[in-house]
Amino acid sequence: MKVEFIHSINDITKSEWQALEKSYCPLMQYDFFKALEDSQSIAIDKGWKAHHLTISSVNENKIEAFLPLYIKQHSWGEYVFDWDWAQAYERNNIDYYPKLVSTIPVTPVPSEKLLSNSLDYKEVIKVLIEYCQQNNINSWHLLFVNEIDDKDNLSLPDDVYLRHTVQFHWFNRDYQSFEHFIASFTARKRKNTLKERRSIEEQNIQINQFIGKEITQKELDYFYLTYQLTYLKNGHQPHLTYAFFEQIFQKLPDNILLIIASCNDNYVACSLFFFDQQHLYGRYWGCSEPFKNLHFELCYYQGIEFCIKNNLKIFNPGTQGEHKIQRGFEAVLTYSYHWINNLNFKEPIKNYCEQEREQLKRYQTKCLSALPFKQQQK
After folding, report:
1. In terms of Cα–Cα distance, which of 68, 339, 83, 298 is closest to 200?
2. Distances (CA, A) of 177 to 14, 97, 301, 306, 377
3. Torsions phi, psi of 209, nearest 5?
4. What is the rounded distance in angstroms from the CA atom of residue 150 to the CA atom of residue 122?
5. Closest among 263, 266, 264, 270 to 220, alpha carbons compared
6. Do residues 161 and 337 lie in contact, with contact meaning Cβ atoms separated by under 8 Å?
7. For 124-148, how does the pLDDT look when each residue is reduced to its tens digit (9 = 90+)?
8. How far is CA 333 from CA 218, 313, 359, in A?
9. From edge to edge, which strands make up the β-sheet containing 48-50?
10. What are the beta bridge partners of residue 6?
């Protein structure tokens, strides 16, 4: 096998990628990563240096595995927070960066990150450890991956540490309609949900859904305006450029849902989703005028209705947000794996991860007990 690190997604072809692909997730498609890099949304000057791992067979010169990787000089856009680790290094006058990160940039979606039909994480982790040791890389991080299951004989090295985060996902239990779904709520929670949805009509708001090719320049322009406003209101610059969205709207039209709310014939808010054969992924929300309960309608209730109508099984609306619980979103644990080069920090970070995992499991249990359902869901 030949191991190489490539510095652009354009160094691998779309057909090579598709030959390895394991997932229908649109966010793990070649065109998505290509748009990130071609649009300069993810670039060296933004602290993301593409350093993708490829493993090829020497005899056939055929790529057998691909792992998206970036050398990073910061921890922005990851959503598995290691700022405390970086600060501990700084207090001891030790460099925490650079680090090697495998993720979908600025996209905290659990998915299969390793593309391969013949290799598994056991071989890849060995490659990553050796590479970091030989090239003064202080750590590597596999973020939002599927659980690496020990029963498949993929026992991790003792110094690879698992971390959890909690997200809130909606599960379609063969619901026939939105009314069928909320019929499973307690009376008080059902009444509150209906009241929130009624308030949208009472405010004279109309809502339209656009799939892929139905999205015109007008809708794209409005979406990007609200996308920018969301970041600017919080004092940050947007991660993604207009060119990125323009490109993915063209390349992934069958996987994009844009929902726009209007009032008095003027656009006032929108939400952007991606979807595949089983999942809906809520990604971005923004508004140009504030309206009561509109965020819940565009980001949650419209998405649930879309899943029921199209028989999608899981709706991941994005990170964080305990307010999702009372609307039927269930706490789930995500999986990320981490390796630290510095010997003095291995044990403290191992203990940190162990304590964090136990804390988040307790938190998950507490969140599940607060769901609005009349009885525990299975």
Report:
1. 298
2. 38, 50, 12, 10, 17
3. -105, 135
4. 10
5. 270
6. yes
7. 999 999 999 999 999 999 999 999 8
8. 38, 17, 12
9. 48-50, 70-72, 99-102, 139-145, 335-340, 160-163
10. 52
The rounded distance, in Å, linking the Cα atoms of 291 and 287 is 9
The H-or-E segment that residue 100 falls in is: strand 99-102
Q: DSSP 3-state assignment of 221?
A: helix
Report how far residue 285's alpha carbon sits from residue 123's, in angstroms, rounded to the nearest whole number. 39
Q: How confident is the model at residue 150 (pLDDT cuts 50, 70, 90)?
A: low
Distance CA 204, CA 226 (A): 20
Q: CA 220, CA 365: separation in Å to the nearest integer? A: 40
Is residue 40 within 8 A of residue 89, CB to CB? The reply is no
Tokens 């809906």 locate to 280
Q: 160-163 and 314-316 as β-strands: parallel, antiparallel, unpaired? A: unpaired
Enumerate domains of the chain plus CATH numbers: 2-164+334-341 (3.40.630), 169-331 (3.40.630.30)
How many angstroms separate the CA atoms of 378 and 376, rounded?
Answer: 7
Distance separating alpha carbons of residues 174 and 170, to the nearest angstrom: 12
Between CA 265 and CA 15 the distance in angstroms is 44
Tokens of 145: 């991956």
Strand bridging mode 256-263 / 266-275: antiparallel
Residue 376 pLDDT grade (very low, low, confident, very high; cuts 50, 70, 90): low
**87 token code pair:** 């600060």
Give me 340's structure tokens.
Answer: 């630290």
Closest CA to 139 of 5, 340, 337: 340
Using a 10 angstrom Cβ sphere, with 0-12 exposed, 13-18 middle and 19 or more buried, the burial of residue 311 is exposed
- Categorize the per-residue pLDDT at 49 as very low, low, confident or very high, splitting at 50, 70 and 90: very high
Q: Are 284 and 220 in contact (CB under 8 A)?
A: no
